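Sequence in, structure out. First:
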Amino acid sequence: MIRAVIFDVGETLTRDDRYWAAWADWLDVPRHTVSALVGAVVARGQDNAEALRLLRPGIDIPAEYAAREAAGRGEYLDETDLYDDVRPSLAALRALGLRVVVAGNQTTRAGARLRALDLPADVVATSGEWGVAKPDAEFFEHAVAAGQAQPDETLYVGDHPANDVIPAAAAGLRTAHLRRGPWGHLWADDPEVAATATWRIDSLSQLPVLLRR
């Protein structure tokens, strides 16, 4: 029985359009170029940040984050960044008596922005706040603790096989792979994802039906 549901953020709850557009503008390259390079690294199975390193070899990404913040061009999130199924799905899960947690690989600033959205969640946390990022097993230890349930009573929902599905399953959690965003679509039918994920879904709205007791 699932007692807690933990959600990844980027391309699970939020669109990454603004995120990548902001990087393109900051690096003064066409937005299409950034989008194409993100697609290329996804197809290679590499981390999204490799797109930035292809654009600027040797880039110090944390330093560039800091420079953007200092210039007033830092990370920003608002209601328009959420996918349409987020609020109703999270609210429906809480109505079922499940604990809902939002936890992804984001900065401390992004965590504050997410909490300002007042999502129907019991906990909102980020890797920047925990000091450890996916796919590290310690991240999932924090996530399970936030969910206040045993690992096998906890479901982790995300689009990214290497950061979400596979390490969460290795940590003993149940998993749902979401066909959303570049990673979610490209790797949805990967044999390892199919063999590892407890469920494969096309929308968060499927979860309340799957988890109804």
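Second:
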Amino acid sequence: MDTATPPGSARLTFRDATDADAPALVALIESAYRGDSSRAGWTTEADLLEGQRTDEDGVRAVIDAPAGRLLAVERDGGLIACCQLEHRGDAAYFGMFAVRPDAQGGGLGKVIIAEAERTARESWGVAEMHMTVISAREDLIAWYERRGYRRTGQFTPFPYGDERFGIPQRDDLAFELLVKNIEAL
């Protein structure tokens, strides 16, 4: 499926990721959140977490999940972003959202999240989109709030000690549930 992008941008292509995409998706996700390369964008978690954010097994698990899909977003034939959608009853879960650091800040994220909401609503008839965000990421939470998401005050502890999700650099990390009604969009 194609959708329009912000003025001056090439068209985007949204497609379901395949197992063959896993290495490129891991590289994209890592570049957006970890290490020095992530500092080129504004979504970096480098000051909060070191180590990996995901691996090929984790990405393949999302790709192969029967109740979900991992959308690969391409521009001019190159992978530029991705996001996970998972059907969870009356809601869809939005996760694993990554935009290449050098493409951040120009409106691409708004286009991708709108397409993800449309896809979830049309594919599964869900009324809400849910996501979890590290509560210390106030700038990111504010960005989602501008997109219509609301904070719930419901927190899940960060999985300290499980290095598959990174090595925490502070001891106060938790995930907060954000919710948006997407029924009437």
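Remark: The beta strands are 2-3, 12-16, 49-50, 68-75, 78-88, 91-99, 128-134, 150-157, 167-168, 174-181.
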